[in-house]
Amino acid sequence: MFPVYNGAMTLRESLQSIAGQDFGDFQAIILNNCSTDETLQVAQRFCEEDARFSVISNETHLSAEANFAKAVKLGAEAANYFCLRAADDLSSRDFLGKLVEALDADDAKLLAACSTKSFNAQGFKLKKPAANIFNFQESYAKGRVPRNLTFPSEWIYGMFRSRSVDILMARWYELGNPWGFASYVLSEFVVRDLVAYVPGPTLDFREGSGSEQRYGAKGFRDKLSQRLTYTLGCYRLVDKLPPTGLLTKAKFFRMCWNDARRKTRYKLLWIF
């Protein structure tokens, strides 16, 4: 699924990155959100060249959150597995194949994800998950909770099993804007051990889209409100974890608060 608004400059390259995958048994849908540039024309030309690609145009312009949510629902209805792709991102050639293999191998996993190559003008850095986020429920039951739930937020562009749609949509709009929502939504997949991590392939993510400037909170009150929403929303996941004592729950709350600070990047005071 390619939810896109005014992505004409980079869309073709992103489409070609999927067309050139070593796994070819897929359907790709471009969800055009009433773009005002040449996005639709670029999409239509590519669909003429490759029958696996098709385009749907929204009748009215949707918010970024709503357009991505529509893409999730369409993807879940269309196939057993689905993934999202931003119009300016790429991936290694084995991305689809390796992630499909991971879900085929373990029916209990709802998301297959890999490392992220995060590019900017200075080059790229490789973002991997921390080792202590795996087997989270077992560690939690023993009273071990990491200080942070460290994983690439770009896992939102991983491969989802279609039955994951209810988990995705349950928390999709709670933060109120697209900034930080990917990590927030994905936290349930991580703490419930629903992620199959696949070393090797990469999602190639371009930084500098300006989403923080467009969607991030500006004032102290809004930043505090979003941090609290993030913290308390993630903390509610204790109800889906093994029963444990108050100390472990306190550690879990600390982790959620720390994550809210790191994932939103809102610093309320110089050490807070």
From TrEMBL:
InterPro entries: Glyco_trans_2-like, Glycosyltransf_2, Nucleotide-diphossugar_trans. Signal peptide: none annotated. One of its GO terms (molecular function) is transferase activity. The keyword Transferase applies. CDD domains: Glyco_tranf_GTA_type. Keywords: Transferase. It holds the Pfam family Glycos_transf_2. It comes from the Bacteria. Residues 3-139 form the Glycosyltransferase 2-like domain. This is Glycosyl transferase family 2. It comes from Rhizobium tibeticum.
